[in-house]
Amino acid sequence: MSTTAVIGGGIAGLVAAWEISRHGQQVALLEAAPRVGGVIATEQVAGFLMEGGPDSFLAGRPEMMSLCAELGLAAELIGQRSRRVLIYDGQRLVELPPGKAAEVLELSTGGGEAGDAFSLRGGLGVVVDALAARLAGRIRTGARVVAVMRAGAGFRLMLEPAEPVEADAVILAVPAPAASGLVRHLDRELATTLADCAYGSSATISLAYPREAVRHPLDAAGLVIPRGVARAVVACTFASSKFAGRAPAGSVLLRAFVGRYGDASLLDADDAALVAAVEGELEPLLGLAAPADRWQVFRWPAAIPRYDDAHRARVGWIRERAAAADVLLAGAAYDGIGLSDCVASAKVAGSAALGAASVR
Ligand SMILES: Cc1cc2nc3c(=O)[nH]c(=O)nc-3n(C[C@H](O)[C@H](O)[C@H](O)COP(=O)(O)OP(=O)(O)OC[C@H]3O[C@@H](n4cnc5c(N)ncnc54)[C@H](O)[C@@H]3O)c2cc1C
Fold first, then answer.
1. Does ligand 1 have an atom closer than 6 angstroms to the CB of 38?
2. Domain coverage including residue 343
3. Are 86 and 223 in contact (CB under 8 A)?
4. Cα of 43 to ligand 1 centre, how many Å?
5. Domain check: are 204 and 270 in the same one?
6. 193: CA distance to ligand 1 center in Å?
């Protein structure tokens, strides 16, 4: 039976691998980090549920909803409690017209992203855990692939520091700069063009307070801050207002988003300095009476793709060249950064691998 190697164990790699394995084909998922999930990072800390990466998906696209249903997680879905988003106009917080947050945050969406946000009672990590459980025995963590080479009709994957892995087909579910390094022996021009895809760096800072330490009513899902108004904070989710079960009774959880595209300098600061800068900017907006009881910083260097005007044409070209090299692509680098976009791209790549296996 033919084996497909999926490189990268974020949501895209996990879904692509599951798509293949549930149709009875062999798959090996190789993930460089010690854990799968990629930028999905859910942590339970002293009764707080902190999302280090994404915290929700939008119902305007069906893929994440369907995935949760397929994984038997439909009963775990929870909806956003408040749809209000506030914007700081330089003087005060005012209500932002619905659907405008992504625009203010300058995020690249794949289109069609709208509607209420959903998560799961136990956070998005529940989806990662469910996929990992279904792929038990087929996932290798701590397995960094450094190059993909041709080997007869198939491929040889060079791993650091482990022995090479042979595969009949390959799905690259890694960020574009990583994909660039992997394909350099297959197609140098493809590698160069993948390296042209721009990425932004960011950090999220989860801040936990006793309820009485925050004077603002927190009667919204969060706030956004337009470019040029604040130095550190780009947005702040009122995590315990947005979703149930994010903070113990009598406490609140905020989540600040730091790092604007083109200005990641603040991310060089150490954790304590970053927290101080964030609290300094939130204090006049939310009325913080004391520093956070506990905080957690999650750093995401070069993790969010930034699609420029040439992106669509570049991706068309990349997909053609990758197809000519028999390599399949999935993930946020190509057709949208939202979780549903990533799931959609993974299902397409998984199906293509199945189709190729059936004629092999
Ligand atoms: C802070 C933040 C907040 C976000 N918020 C939202 C949100 O609320 N809603 C939403 O829909 N989207 C959100 N997004 C976007 C969305 O989460 C991502 O686009 C999506 O999770 C990316 O998944 P992926 O599988 O493509 O990539 P990743 O999650 O980046 O996974 C790629 C994996 O490949 C591995 N890898 C890299 N190189 C190699 C190698 N050489 N060998 C082996 N493995 C390798 C990495 O370790 C990683 O695990 C957010 C993103 C970030 C960073």
1. yes
2. 3-37+128-196+308-359
3. yes
4. 16
5. yes
6. 20
What pLDDT was estimated at residue 114? 63
Whether 118 and 208 map to the same domain: the answer is: yes
Domain count, the chain: 2
pLDDT in tens, 112-150: 446 789 999 999 999 999 999 999 999 999 999 999 999
- 109 pLDDT more than 60: no
Please report the pLDDT score of residue 149 as a whole number. 97
Among protein residues, the one whose CA lies closest to atom 52 of ligand 1: 53
- Atom of ligand 1 minimally distant from the CA of 14: 25
What is the spatial distance between Cα 89 and Cα 80, in angstroms, rounded to a whole number?
A: 24
Distance, CA 290 to ligand 1 centroid (Å)? Answer: 34
Position in ligand 1 atom list of the atom nearest CA 204: 1
Concatenating the DSSP letter of every residue in 131-181 gives HHHHTTTSEESS-EEEEEEEETTEEEEEEESS--EEESEEEE-S-HHHHHH
Q: Are both 143 and 292 inside the same structural domain?
A: no
Question: If you measure from the C-alpha of residue 140 to the centroid of ligand 1, how many angstroms do you get, rounded to a whole number?
Answer: 17
pLDDT tops 70 at residue 307: yes
CATH for 12? 3.50.50.60
Q: Are residues 181 and 260 in the same domain?
A: no
What is the best residue among 174, 224, 296, 298 to mutate for testing ligand 1's pocket, by most ligand atoms within 8 Å of CB? 174
53 lines ligand 1 (CB under 6 A): yes
Q: Ligand 1: does its nearest atom lie under 6 Å from the Cβ of 342?
A: yes
Both structure tokens of 14: 């996990």
pLDDT at 110 over 60: no
Confidence at 260, pLDDT banded by 50, 70, 90: confident
pLDDT higher than threshold 80 for residue 299: yes
The answer to whether residues 20 and 72 belong to one domain is no
- Dist. CA 85–CA 267, nearest whole Å: 25
Write down the pTM of the prediction: 0.96
Using a 10 angstrom Cβ sphere, with 0-12 exposed, 13-18 middle and 19 or more buried, the burial of residue 263 is middle
214 and 187 both lie in a single domain: no
CATH code for the domain in which residue 204 is found? 3.90.660.20
Residues 216 and 190 in one domain: no
Q: Which residues does residue 45 pair with via DSSP β-bridges, in sequence order?
A: 48
User: Which atom of ligand 1 lies nearest, measured to the CA of 8?
Assistant: 34
Q: Do the Cβ atoms of 203 and 258 come closer than 8 Å?
A: yes
